[in-house]
Amino acid sequence: MRRIYLDNGATTWPKPAGVLDAVDQFLRIGGATAGRGIYQQAIDTATAIDKARAGIAQLIGAADAHRIIFTAGGTDSLNLALHGLLRGGDHVVTSVAEHNSVLRPLRAIEDALGIQVSRIGCDASGRIDEEEVCQAIGQKTRLVVLSHASNVTGVIQPTDRIGDLAREHDAFFLIDAAQTAGQLPINVESLQADLLAAPGHKGLLGPLGSGILYVGPRAEEQLIPMRQGGTGSESESDRQPEALPERMEAGNLNVPGIVGLAAGVEYLLEKDVSAIRTHHLALRELLCSGLEKMQNITLYGPMSQECVGVVSFSISGYAPQEVAAMLDSAYGIQVRAGYHCAADIHDTIGSRETGGTVRISLGPFNDEVQIAQVLKAVGQIATEAPI
Which of 239, 271, 303 corresponds to the end of one domain? Predict the structure, then answer.
């Protein structure tokens, strides 16, 4: 049975051939530590890291490539931003639509430092209202942190306008771009993003264990590193001001992951993210229009194009996990089921009592034939649903 992979919102698969080749070649031929090695292999490794920064900066519209920090993933990037930026007594504005990678660190910092967190609501599609964000911002607000798009419903949040609001109130703005980097054209300058976090293994098409954090000029001096050691001056006596990457990337970097991530970004730049978005929207429209015609199906999220390639639904009479298990075992279709690490949003969109949703998340290598097979399989399950 040929399998159909539709869990790209968790990890994009398959990877472009260039990603596999880049990782393989680095481990076979390169494999050095960049550091301060003066031999060619170390120099080549440092050059590869710089090249990766440049490609990512180009992709997200960052003017300075050295504002790209490499991390172990999206969660790592968000933790670095949140723990590194917030201080005791600060106020943070976020939403109930956020992933646990935002909500759990905030909860820990709330308990440890006594910060205050305002969690604004969302509508039935998962979309937040920028006016509620504006009303929540106060004199002590240091940070506004929001997802660029919901990982449950796919709705794109009005981050462009919220960035302006945060800047007007002298608050920092952190965007969780886990579901949009590589899927949606991004420009950190026009978004007024002070920080932007993204995993390498989702829309950026890189390996697991890779991620990035963009750090803008306003946030640079305020961000405290989570780790120290392994970078900077060789002795304390000749200590010089460190560049941002040296200050934030203590220890050895995951260079195989970085060169694989760079190859994924190169693929995106060559194919054009706008074209990939058009492809995702066409498949999403095909999928949603087919599901809407079926009995016993509930769709969650927007039916408009203000979304990324994520579709959530449930089938009456079945728990989402049951549907996902049947799709996998009987049809070879791999999807995600449950709350998708963002449980709070399900109270608003109406899927808490069903145990969450079945989530289909599209990747660049999915096609119309696969969507037709998915619709056929879901239709058969829905027709036989034990209501």
Answer: 271
Amino acid letter for position 282: A
Tens digits of residue pLDDT in 114-163: 999 999 999 999 999 999 999 999 999 999 999 999 999 999 999 989 99
> Quick one: 163 and 41 in the same domain?
yes
- Amino acid (1-letter code) at residue 216: G
| pLDDT, tens digit (0-9, with 9 covering 90-100), for 306-327 | 999 999 999 999 999 999 999 9
Rounded CA-CA distance 346/152 in Å is: 9
Q: Cβ(277)–Cβ(185) under 8 Å?
A: yes
Q: Spell 130-142 as b/e; 16+ CB within 10 A means b.
A: beebbebbeeebb
Q: Which residue has the tokens 């001056």?
A: 233
Instruction: Say yes or no: 265 and 277 in one domain.
Output: no
pTM equals 0.94
Pair (90, 184) in one structural domain? yes
Find out whether 308 and 280 touch, Cβ atoms under 8 Å.
yes
